[in-house]
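lol so apparently i was supposed to do this last week
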Amino acid sequence: MVITDKITDLGGIGSKRAALYEKLDIFTIGDLLEHYPTGYIDLTESEEIDAVNVNEYHVVEAVLTHKQVPERHHSKLIVYKAVIEDDSGAMSIVFYNNRFALDALEEEKCYRFYGKVAGNFTRREMVNPVVVAADTKRLILPKYHLTKGLTQNMVAAGVTAALDAVKEQIREFIPDEIRSEYRLCSEEYAVNNIHFPENMRAAELSRHRLGFDELFVMQCALRRLRNTNRGECGVRMNAVPLEEFEESLPFELTSAQKRTCNEVYSDMEKASPMNRLVQGDVGSGKTAVAAAACYMCVKNGFQAAFMAPTEILANQHYNTLKAFLEPLSVRVECLTGSLTPAAKRKMKERLAAGEIDVVTGTHALISDSTEFAALGLIITDEQHRFGVEQRKRLAEKGDHPHRLVMSATPIPRTLALIMYGDLDVSVIDELPKGRQRIQTYAVTGRLRERALSFVRQELDKGRQGYIVCPMIEDEEGFTELQAVTDYAQRLQRGILAGYSTAILHGKMTGAEKDSVMADFKAGQIQLLVSTTVVEVGVDVPNATVMLIEDADRFGLSQLHQLRGRVGRGSEQSYCILVTENPTPEVRDRLRIISENSDGFAIAEADLRLRGAGDFFGSRQHGLPPVKIADLAADSTLLKETSDAADSVLRDDPNLDRQPLLRKKTNELTDRIGSEGMN
Ligand code: ADP
Ligand code: MG
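anyway here it is w/ magnesium ion bound
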């Protein structure tokens, strides 16, 4: 048997049980072995019966002296009891409705029992205990994540069978030097001891080793992928002085923008395509960097395409790029789905003829009929919104063009290393001068009226505002649409009567949303009441106030992103977070966002509070989920595996000397290469 065989090939797992395992994403023997315990029950140390306390969990070693007659309390409850004794005293064990548990035990035999003790001082009983023979070798029992119908014992038996079936095939794949440098136990030891450890230290060593495996293979795969991307020679460009571009700007680039531009320029001079991620907090000025990249590309006789997730963003980028680049004689156009067919056709003809230098647009850019004369650079904004396939299709419209990805999602550096391991990363860690910090306040619902009159004051000053209501899941037929509509109507009948208000929600079509946003941008709408569909990246400098309802329902990073819609001009901006749920935990979270303006610091805090699951649960990034390594806690492991991958690949980039490691990384590369990176 091999690890890719189905679990039904193991004795004891039939099709019915396999269906249960499938619910846990377990199909093969390998999957089962990678169903790592979430914890253990440690029976290695036992106490005397005399010493156990009611309402606590204890382990005792005792002889089962006799089983009692089952007590039938009513048709649904049968109680199975037995008396157990050690030198210090006696107590009962009780199983509710589980006759098999008691049947499995023998009188006069010695066992270890683990469970919660109930009763009172004179009559103690252990309820539904976990029981093992006193002379067993397995005194540490794994606890698995289960699904209804599967028990711990079944999974433990399944894993035991899986280990027996493939134990001969577990091979070491990490080079000896790395193993000794990072003090890793052997693969075989780890695979066995993660499930059935001899002691808790063995469990820890195994967890460490398997976490190392996971991240190490991932880092090797990402590096090799990056190297293959590097190898493909695309478009050749020569250096252009950044100063030429800067002269057309209405402002001076921040030093972080300059540094990023220089990194981009030096990538674009190389013989292999650029693969760079530009990460910058909201408002850090990523578009100017994109424009600089376009400029270099066009100066070299190539075209650039800038793909945005929505029309409103495509139009916004178009306007910005035009303002920056037209003075430099660069021809900029915008291609979106809402153009008339004739206009679209005309624009596509000009693109194919090379009469347009820079095009911004939506998915229309990747339609089959869009062709470029010489595509040299593709830029994607907010990459999480694009399917990988779409980015790939855009890239295929050129000959291995340079690639620039802009992301405002602040990802803790530790995670960025993994998520974007195939990309070089530039971070714009500075906001343009003169930006004022957004004053952020958290209040309870009691102060809502006051908060709303504050919003009104801002509108009276000629500014604009946003009110964000959380998405309401369709509970009791109350829809998101109703929630937003009701809210806006209440405002218009009450405190904000007479102000021009519009609503924006997820059920609107793209064109409807765009038209509302365009009116808002043009200043025709004073207040926008919306769900979270306020597009990330929309730039309306005159908007200075945002009120967020039920702020505790949002993640911190999301709040920070939302808040970034204000504070984009020179005026002081405000964000008011309203919560009806001011628990200490909510207060702490909202305090973090009120006191911090750095998206990275907030993301780190968010990650600490919520765990890495949110970043890795979603699979949006195209990486396989991490099964065992705890990324929030294991930043050392991340660093170590990254160093280890570097050192192995330095001397042996093709892993010729490490065929097993190569096989494992290739398997992973196949997965992320096809879906993840392009
Ligand atoms: P983001 O990084 O969120 O995409 P944008 O590129 O939309 O940010 O820039 C936000 C605003 O800041 C825009 O109005 C832009 O013109 C302005 N801006 C960008 N760079 C600078 C700078 N160096 N100095 C002053 N304003 C800048
Ligand atoms: Mg932007």
